[in-house]
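To whoever picks this up:

The nightly regression suite flagged Magnesium transporter as changed. Nothing in the input moved, so I suspect the structure step. Input below, exactly as stored in the fixture:
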Amino acid sequence: MAAVNRVFAAQLAGLPVFGPDGESIGKARDLVAGLRLDHLPPRVLGLVVELATRRRVFVPMLRVTSIDPNAVTLATGSVNMRQFHQRPNEVLVLGQLADAHATLSGTDTRIAVSDAAMEPTRTRDWVLAKLAIRERTGRLGIGRRRSTLRVVPWSDVSGLGLADLSAQPQGAGQLLILFDTMRAVDVAATLRDLPLKRRHEVADAMDDERLADVIEELPEDDQKDLLAYLPDERAADILEAMNPDDAADLLGELNPAEQSRLLELMEPEESEPVRRLLAYSSDTAGGLMTPEPVVLPPDATVAEALARIRNAELPAALATMVFVCRPPTETPTGRYVGCVHFQRLLREPPAELVASAVDSDLAALRPTAQLAEVTRYFAAYNLACGPVVDAEDHLLGAVTVDDVLDHLLPEDWRETGLHDLPGDTAEGPVEVDRA
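Regenerated output under the current build:
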């Protein structure tokens, strides 16, 4: 391994990981350390590396040949492709150790861990030799400054044993800083790797909008568990912040009493579209659709349409199509006129009316259309988004291709990752002992 004296976990997180020939393996997400019963620094066992398929695997430190500011390089050989599972004597440095509360040895000084640094030993092992800490001075108020960050030896800190970390409440500041650089789907994968207590602490610290985005990317059982943990009022706020179709899918998995209680706690204007979606089976166009597509009246201009689909918060699939309807333009709308593909909008003069660019020949889905019919519809017309219209020609919503794929994949696809990609199977060499 190239000579490196000290590497902080937060600096390592997110670095690309390459094989010996420069091939991309994935990204480093965390360090795995083995906790000890004495006060000696824990040995760093390896890295948690996230593959392109979002599966997380364990890479022993002996496989790492170099660490530099821009990348981690592995030695020649095979990596065990089995999903990483934390063992009882192990700690995730960023996932569990960061934000942990402890004390300076031999004093009553309370501190919080901000980061941990690993250093090499003469035996080629790596240990968590140093901790970046801040003194805990109570709740910050107006005019008060955060305590100074300082680096101390591991042995200068008490209260970081496995039992201590399992019992104490932790903050989540460092993890949230790390999550700011990650997509919601990657944050969801990280949360699933954390112990339940730590997962709850992170959920408590997240704002509603971010937590809603992350919950949408979790497997069904994890969604229900996290929603059940949250106080009812906050759970209702989270459901309001979710996309209506995702909120309806989640509520549809709850028992009728829980479903009714949470719907009553939601604001009426937020719960109403969710209630409409719950009236349809989840494997129909009505159950798959979102009730919030881009809808404009016929006298709107192309410039207005482009401004609407330029909204950065609009999902990419919904931005591929604008629906033209008679007022009202909230779903269920007035009479559905047709749709305008975004590529057509790019070719039209900005002052032109959208009515002049309408595709009135594209067939619409009925809300009762089954998943197989919806799938054939998207394949036949090469669409990313399609209208759902009732028998009276009212636009009810739009189905997007990502929701179709979500229902076509196996139920546990978020848990297992895309394991069937060529070259990425669960088969591999015997896992290197990291106990």
